[in-house]
Specification:
Layout (H helix, E strand, L loop, with lengths): L13 E2 L8 E10 L4 E9 L4 E7 L4 E6 L12 E8 L4 E9 L4 E5 L2 E5 L4 E4 L6 E5 L2 E6 L4 E8 L3 E10 L5 E6 L8 E4 L4 E5 L2 E6 L7 E3 L4 E2 L12 E2 L7 E2 L6 E3 L6 E2 L3 E5 L3 E6 L5 E6 L8 E6 L2 E6 L2 E4 L2 E4 L4 E6 L5 E6 L9 E5 L2 E5 L3 E6 L5 E6 L10 E4 L4 E4 L5 E3 L8 E5 L3 E5 L5 E6 L4 E7 L2 E6 L2 E5 L5 E5 L6 E3 L2 E6 L2 E6 L7
Antiparallel strand pairs: 1-7, 2-3, 2-47, 3-50, 4-5, 5-6, 6-7, 8-9, 9-10, 10-11, 12-13, 13-14, 14-15, 16-17, 17-18, 18-19, 20-23, 21-22, 23-30, 24-25, 25-26, 26-27, 28-29, 29-32, 30-31, 32-33, 34-35, 35-36, 36-37, 38-41, 39-40, 39-44, 41-42, 42-43, 44-45, 45-46, 46-47, 48-49, 49-50
Length: 518
């Protein structure tokens, strides 16, 4: 598991408190299993203040809770708060520490904790809260499983450098260093095997996690653009919960994320950038083939492979700070994945607009723009149909994104199933006007659904779906039948058949192994 850290810190004094000060534990009924009327009970840990964030370390069974109240007018969050470490096994507080949320952050991985602020990052002992080691480096990744921390070395004059350092997570001792540019931020980071990491940053950098050695492939994933004037740059852009990575731009005129996702198979790596689409040898980084792009064409994009063809959807936008800007041109393209030979490239006639989202339906690209949907043949790239939608321009109402399989609806026989499975000839789109539009293969609107009538699946385990609506959780089986209903909100977290939930100052633990057993 990986975490990325974009700010650095001051360590506040550790405070000792009583083992169970102002903390009570009670049992409560949260719902029933309707088939046999069995009550579903859970434990409620009541703390003295409202819970802002929490992290449960399943290795130690330590619960880290951050507390943050509201200002006097009850409209904004306080900048001051505190965190405490609670032992779930022995039911006692281990330590407590003040927090200033304008300067301090806590980042955790199984068995490790980092306390951050404006000047230093400190690695803490999770049981005592005491500092194990500290650094001025800007930490990008900490991985307890591998026992390492990756950070960029800090120079008192220049600030963060381009030298990536690997440290032992327990001692802080330096293991190796390597020069890897961070000019346009990290676009991705992942392990391609047990020992090799791929860092996507102005190209691809492969490194052995033990030695730091490996190959480099350089390409353009960002540019300095003086044509756009933005007063202030945000700290970074989150690329998604699944990658755990961030883009960090260093100046207000820097354009980032001019790159695709990275595809990796047993022998090769595929990536598109501003310059070109390329296939690399996975072990050596050698270019197997490449297809150059014309200037001012490529932008942020997605690539995927089907059979022997690599398809590319170029969105026509990139990022400047945290702001999405028009960049390049939207297009679709297809290439032979073995030879790189271009099958087609279709630049889309979409002036002052870019692709918001796409979905493959019946071997066709369904492309979403702000105010229209277009269909193109995947096989040939030929344009099939376009449907424009009336929008409330004064209210900035427009299409939003395609409905995913995690959106559920009630059927006529009172089952809860994914909306996308209810009609194979219908595709569903979220509209900003709090509705879902249903359209057929001819792009004709066949229905409109108020989002208040929809349910959202937030977790799944053992073929059971956990679906939320109106601050209640409904558990359904794979056929859509309701198994249980719980007084649990959508911020619940399911881990090893146990459901965890925060409600105000209460931390809730519900054991569901008898409900969702295999």
């Amino acid at each position: 598991m990986k975490r990325i850290l974009l700010a650095i810190t001051v360590l506040f004094p550790l405070m000792c408190i009583g083992q169970n000060a102002d903390i009570t534990i009670n049992e409560k009924v949260f719902g029933t299993k309707p088939q046999d009327s069995i009550e579903i009970r859970g434990l409620v840990y009541e703390f003295p203040d409202n819970i802002y964030k929490y992290y449960l370390d399943t290795m130690s069974n330590f619960l880290t809770i951050q507390f943050r109240g509201l200002t006097k007018n009850q409209k904004k969050l306080n900048s001051e708060g505190y965190t405490l470490q609670y032992d779930m096994i022995n039911k006692g507080v281990l330590w407590k520490k003040d927090l200033n949320y304008n300067m301090n952050h806590i980042l955790q991985d199984y068995g490790s904790m980092f306390f951050t602020g404006p000047y230093h990052v400190s690695c803490l002992d999770i049981e005592t809260g005491e500092k194990k080691w500290k650094t001025k480096n800007r930490i990008y990744v900490h991985d307890s499983g591998k026992g390492i921390v990756l950070s960029y070395k800090y120079n008192n004059i220049e600030g963060p450098t381009n030298y990536l350092e690997c440290n032992d997570i327990n001692s802080g001792n330096s293991l190796w260093e390597r020069s890897i540019t961070r000019e346009y931020g990290w676009n991705d980071f992942f392990f391609s095997n047990d020992s090799t990491v791929l860092i996507i940053s102005s190209g691809i950098h492969a490194l052995n996690i033990k030695t730091g050695r490996g190959w480099n492939y350089y390409t353009t994933t960002g540019v300095e653009d003086y044509t756009t004037n933005i007063a202030m740059n945000a700290a970074g852009i989150a690329l998604g919960a699944l990658t755990g990575t961030y883009v960090l731009s260093s100046a207000h005129n820097v354009v980032t994320d001019i790159v695709s996702n990275t595809l990796v198979d047993s022998t090769s790596i595929y990536i598109a950038s501003k310059d070109r689409l390329a296939k690399l040898n996975k072990n050596t980084g050698e270019i197997i083939w490449q297809q150059p792009f014309a200037d001012k064409l490529a932008s942020k994009s997605s690539i995927f492979i089907s059979d022997s063809i690599l398809y590319m959807i170029n969105y026509g936008y990139a990022y400047m700070g945290s702001r999405q800007i028009e960049f390049g041109k939207p297009f679709i393209a297809a290439f032979n994945k073995d030879s790189g030979e271009q099958e087609y490239i279709i630049i889309l006639d979409s002036k002052d607009d870019f692709i918001i989202d796409y979905k493959i339906v019946n071997n066709e690209f369904n492309l979403m723009f702000q105010n229209k949907l277009s269909k193109y043949s995947i096989a040939t790239g030929n344009h099939l149909k376009t449907k424009e939608f009336e929008t409330e321009k004064d209210k900035n109402k427009s299409l939003n994104y395609f409905v995913g399989n995690n959106v559920f609806v009630t059927t006529s026989d009172n089952k809860l199933v994914s909306l996308n499975t209810t009609d194979s000839a219908t595709t569903y789109v979220f509209h900003e006007n709090r509705i879902v539009l249903a359209y057929d293969n001819e792009l004709n609107i066949s229905d409109s659904i108020n989002i208040d009538n929809l349910y959202l699946q937030y977790s799944k385990a053992n073929n059971y779906s956990f679906i939320n609506k109106d601050n209640k959780t409904i558990i359904v089986n794979e056929t859509g039948n309701q198994i249980a209903e719980l007084e649990v909100t959508s911020n619940a977290y399911l881990l090893n058949n146990t459901l965890y939930n925060v409600q105000g100052n209460n931390f809730i633990v519900i054991d569901l192994k008898e409900i969702i057993a295999y």
